[in-house]
Design a protein that fits this description.
With 146 residues, this protein is an all-alpha fold. The chain has one domain. It is built from 7 helices and no strands. The protein has helices at 2-5, 10-17, 20-37, 40-52, 56-71, 76-137, 140-145. The longest helix has 62 residues, at 76-137. The termini are far apart. Belongs to the SLC13A/DASS transporter (TC 2.A.47) family. NADC subfamily.
């Protein structure tokens, strides 16, 4: 609005908006977007989960190390922009792992139930077979009386 009302020239207004920090932040956001596009954040997250496991303390240590390394060359805001996709990917991996674990436990329960039912059916069949063998071993007149 300053150039529109004649307060300042447009070149002076643009110079105020385009500072080194703003350009750095825009560049890091572009780098973060490219990291997301090529799924580098998922690779880093998977590597972190593989190294740390599902232990919250170890995951926090991995995040701290990752952020520390990025902070050596980038500003704090830029580092946050870079680490956020990694954090989201780690959370996604942990949620998927938990769902897989729940599915595996449900499948395990179903298998155990089916084995139990199968064993019960076998026991029942064995009892019937034993009864039939016992009846078949009886003399003819005892079979008729029974």
């Amino acid at each position: 609005l300053y150039p529109l009302f004649g307060v300042m020239k447009s070149s002076e207004v643009a110079a105020e908006y385009i500072k080194n920090t703003t350009l750095l932040l825009m560049g890091v956001i572009c780098v973060a977007a490219s990291v997301e596009k090529w799924n580098l954040h998922k690779r880093i997250a998977l590597r972190m989960v593989m190294m740390a496991g599902a232990k919250p303390g170890m995951l926090l240590l991995c995040f701290m190390c990752c952020t520390t390394i990025l902070s050596m060359w980038l500003s704090n805001t830029s580092t946050t922009a870079m680490v956020m996709p990694i954090v989201e990917a780690v959370l996604h991996e942990l949620v998927n792992a938990e769902e897989d674990c729940e599915m595996n436990s449900a499948a395990q329960w179903l298998i155990e139930w089916m084995v139990h039912k199968n064993n019960q059916q076998k026991e029942h069949t064995n009892q019937i077979n034993q009864e039939l063998l016992r009846i078949h071993a009886m003399p003819q007149h005892q079979r008729l009386c029974k």
